[in-house]
Amino acid sequence: MKRVKSGRRSRMFMGRLLAGMTAAALFVSSFAVQGNAGRVYAKESETDGAVFKEPEVRSVNLNIDGKIAGLENPTVPESTEAEWSNGTGTYIYYAGIGRSRLLDADTTDFSRDGEHSIFAVSDGQVSCDIYWWDKKADNGQKSVNDWKYSDMYLYLTGETGIESPHTYYPDNIAGRLFSKAQMAALISNYNDSHEDWEEISGELGYAGLDGEKLFLLDAREIEHEGYGFSHTHEGSKSQFFRNGGAFLRSPSLADDMKTGIMRANPSDNLKSDVTTWDVRDNAGVVYPAYNIRLSSVFYTAYREEDQFLGANLDPDESYRMTKEKGGSNAWTVAVFDGNDGFRARRIDDDGILQPGGGIHFSVDSMGQPGEDVEYDRISAMLVDESGTVIAYGKIYDLPGNGDIHMIKIPEGVEDGKYTVKIFAEDMLYEPE
C-alpha cells in the first residue's frame, strides 16, 4: 500500500503505528545508568520495577495498565438542552474515520472473553447510504430491516461493495479508512447485554452483534446516559451529530420495512429524535461505531481542534519536552502493529547523566513490521516514575543506517528515575 509521507500534507492523516520497543532505566543527575533493561512491547507498561503513580496529563500520554491520562468517560446530560456529555466530552481520532465521541474509555461490554476496549462512535459524516439498497444481502434475512443481513451491515464489514449513488466509498468503509494494522487493533464485537437496557420509545427492537468490527449504534445505546446521551427519544441536543440524522441498527417492532433512525427534531434542528424510517430511503449519514483493543493502544497525542491535523501531528516533529494539555479535549490514538522483534541497543558506558546530556544507541533489528506497515522514523520517550511522558519525538528518519544516535535529556528535567523508550513509528496517510 502506497502512502503519502512527510512533506505532503494535502491528504488525510490516518494515525500512527508502532513496533515493539527497547527500554532502559536511567537516573538524572545522581545515578549510574543501568544500561539496556530489555524489550518492552507497546501493550506493556511496567518497566524496570517502577511503581507508577497517577500520571500528569500531558500532550502525549502512555497507556499504563489500561489507563490513559486524559481519556475521560462522558457525563450524564443535565437536560435535553445539554450537548453531548454537557459539552465536556472526550474525542478521539483513529485511522481515517475522523473525530469520534469517546463513549467508554474502558469497557468489556463488547467482548466475549472480557477483553477491554475503548468504545467510540464517529462524530461527523463518514459516508452516506441507505439501509437496504439492492437486495445483495437478502440471503437468510427474515425481513428487510434485519441488521445482520442488511446492505449497510455488508458495507461496514467490507464483505461487498454497494452500488448506491449515495455512497462516498463504494469499495467499503473498512478498506478505505483503515490500514490493515489499524483494523487488526479493533476487536470483533459481540453484544447482547444492551438488550436489557430500556428503549424508551418502545418502538424499536434490539439487534445484537456477532463479530462485526464496525457497526451502527442501537437505539438503546443512543439513549444511554452513561454514554453522554439523554435518556429520551424526543428531542435531545446530546443526540445531535454534526452532519444530521442517520440509521441505527435497531429494527422497528411494528413495520418490517422500517428501522431506527436519529433525525433532526422538527421544531429544533439542533436536537435529534430517535424514531423509525423506511429502509429504502436515504437516511443521510453513516456514523460507524467501533472498539479499539485497549491492550493495542500505546499512547495518545493531544490535538488542538481549531488547527489542521498536520499542525498537531507533524511527521517531522523532533524529540522535545511535552506540554501541558490545552483547552481542547481531543486525542489521536497510536496503536501497536504486532511487531515484537524490534531491538535497540545502548552503546555508551554507564555513568551519571545531567540535563543536556544523553544516552547513545543503535538499532540492531527492525523486526517484522505488521502487514502493509512502513516505518518512517525512530522515536523515543522519556517517562518518569509516575508514568508521565516528559519528552517525546523523532530521533531520526527511516530508512536509516547503523550509525550511533543520541537521546538527549532536556534541560529542566528534575532529578529522579526515568525510563527511555525507543521504538519505530509509521506516520500513516491516506492510501493513494
Question: Your description of this structure?
Answer:
It is a single chain. Strands 1, 2, 3, 4, 5, 6, 7, 15, 16, 17, 18, 21, 22 and 24 form a 14-stranded mixed sheet that branches. The chain has 432 residues and is mostly beta strands. Strand 1 (13-28) and strand 2 form a beta hairpin. The chain folds into two domains: 13-71 and 304-429, no CATH class; 124-286, no CATH class. The protein has five helices and 24 strands.
Largest sheet: 14 strands, mixed
Helix content: under 10%
**Got a strand count?**
24
The stretches of 5 or more residues where confidence is low (pLDDT under 50) are 1-12, 29-52, 308-313
The portion of residues forming beta strands comes to 35-45%
Structural class: mainly beta
Give average pLDDT, whole number: 78
What is the global morphology?
elongated
> SSE order in H/E notation?
EEEEEEEEHHHEEHEEEEEEHEEEEEEEE
Q: Give Rg in angstroms.
A: 23 Å
Discrete helix count: 5
Tell me the number of structural domains: 2
Span of the ends, CA to CA: 8 Å
This entry's quaternary arrangement is single chain
Could you give a short description of this structure?
With 432 residues, the chain is mainly beta.
Task: Pick out its properties.
14-stranded mixed β-sheet; 24 strands; 432 residues; mainly beta; 6% helix; 2 domains; single chain
Task: Outline the fold blueprint.
Layout (H helix, E strand, L loop, with lengths): L12 E16 L6 E6 L19 E5 L2 E2 L22 E3 L5 E9 L9 E6 L4 E4 L20 H7 L15 H5 L2 H5 L4 E3 L17 E4 L6 H4 L23 E6 L6 E8 L2 E11 L3 E5 L2 E5 L3 E7 L5 H4 L7 E2 L8 E7 L6 E4 L11 E8 L11 E8 L4 E9 L7 E4 L7 E14 L3
Parallel strand pairs: 1-18, 5-18
Antiparallel strand pairs: 1-2, 1-24, 3-4, 3-16, 5-6, 6-7, 7-15, 8-14, 9-10, 11-12, 12-13, 16-18, 17-22, 19-20, 20-23, 21-22, 21-24
